[in-house]
Amino acid sequence: MAIKVNEITSWVAEVLDFEGSLMTSGEKLEIEQAFRSYHVLVLRDQTMTASQLSEFSRKLGPLEQPINTLYLHPESSDVLILSNEIRPDGTAVGVVDGGDGWHSDSSHQPEPAKATILQSIKNPDVGGDTLYCNMHMVFDALPETTRSKVVRKFGVNNVSKVLNPRVKISDARPDAKEFYQAALTKYPSVLQPLVRTHPETGRQSLYCSPRFTIGIQDMDDTEAQPLLDELFEFIYDEKFQYRHTWSANDMVIWDNRCLNHKATGNLAPGDIRRMHRTVLRGDSAYYDPEGRPRRQ
């Protein structure tokens, strides 16, 4: 029986009648086709172990290895734990501040992520939604004067929050200050095109984020920072967004090449949110004025 794909919005869909841990080659093709049609896929009723999540993810493509090795799942080094749980000894179970600002995963790396797979393990009673912003729609909405300022320009991206006045280092994450301080020397800044061509569809999108984009190459900050602020205001606009409220056993796959996302937080004191994450490796971002895809 074919899997069932129900459209939620023009760029978001849910997938039913599908068990990822038993995915057949035919179902894999159906998932890949759905992912070409929708930027966010919500796979319902997935109860995979961490090992099964790794195996499922690897069937969809090569995986990126997490740079934060402190919070890898003991069953699989492919799986990163995101959680606000704190053990009695004061150590964290997972990345406490994961996804706390608008971003595209791994855009601070030379070959940024293709897609992220996020599995719900424990949902809070209140809060914990994830927001997604369609950066194709944002690019299409840019005034021509603004668009002309960003085409063929490169954003400066860095993972360290120390360099980014738009974000705050979380006091709730025990290792945060040490991690971001070490990242200053361990992970140098990376240039990414501010306008990115999607390698499969050829469609253009704005490619920057408040979390990782800290400047613009060959542009003084007196000009670059106001321009970035103008661009980020589009990301904050709800008309370009989809809010996902997590149900038990949801698994969401999204396209980092044309989306920003953020975790909303707002958990009640003592409530727990735990997610397991894998990331599909991507390739270098590029801009083609003719909108030519790399792959059909």
In short:
The protein is an alpha+beta fold and 296 residues long. Helices cover 22% and strands 26% of the residues. The strands form 4 sheets. It has an 8-stranded mixed beta sheet, covered by helices on one side. It has a 3-stranded antiparallel beta sheet with strand order 13-7-15. A 3-stranded antiparallel beta sheet has the order 9-8-12.
- Envelope shape: globular
Instruction: Please report the number of helical segments.
Output: 6
The share of residues in extended strands comes to 25-35%
Major β-sheet strand ordering: 1-2-3-14-6-16-5-4
Helix content percent band = 10-25%
Number of strands: 16
Low-confidence parts = none
The overall pLDDT, averaged over residues, is 96
The CATH architecture can be named as 4-Layer Sandwich
Number of domains in the coordinates?
1
CATH superfamily: Clavaminate synthase-like
**CATH fold assignment:** Double-stranded beta-helix
What is the chain-wise order of helices and strands?
A: EEHEHEEEEHHEHEEEEHEEEE
Q: Report Rg.
A: 19 Å
Main CATH class? Alpha Beta
Largest sheet: 8 strands, mixed
